[in-house]
Recover the amino acids of this structure.
């Protein structure tokens, strides 16, 4: 396994997927190249977040739902509060997906 495909559902991942779909539909690039670009995107996002993000965040909230499937934890919190560098950010509902980084490095 190279990397998780979690970031494809982010805003930038959806925009990239839409752009690649349009390029494939127009015949500008092949479907194989589009898949390779998405795979590189997955790897680059994982590498960038692992190496460049150094800030810490804590959060509290009401745990609405949790699940563990295929070594991926998914938590849905309601009325959560995130704290980063003494800044508080309240959120009505948030979905947190957590994966084991050791699995990627195999």
């Amino acid at each position: 396994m190279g990397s998780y495909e979690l970031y494809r559902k982010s805003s930038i991942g959806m925009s990239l997927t839409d752009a690649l779909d349009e390029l494939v539909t127009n015949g500008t690039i092949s479907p194989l190249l589009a898949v390779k670009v998405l795979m590189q995107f997955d790897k680059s996002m994982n590498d960038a977040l692992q190496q460049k993000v150094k800030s810490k965040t804590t959060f509290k909230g009401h745990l609405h739902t949790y699940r563990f499937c295929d070594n991926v934890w998914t938590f849905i919190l309601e009325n959560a509060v995130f704290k980063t560098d003494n800044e508080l950010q309240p959120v009505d509902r948030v979905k947190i997906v957590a994966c084991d980084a050791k699995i990627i490095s195999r």
Q: What stands out?
A: The chain has three helices and three strands. The radius of gyration is 17 Å. The chain has a mean pLDDT of 89. Residues 31-52 form the longest helix (22 residues).
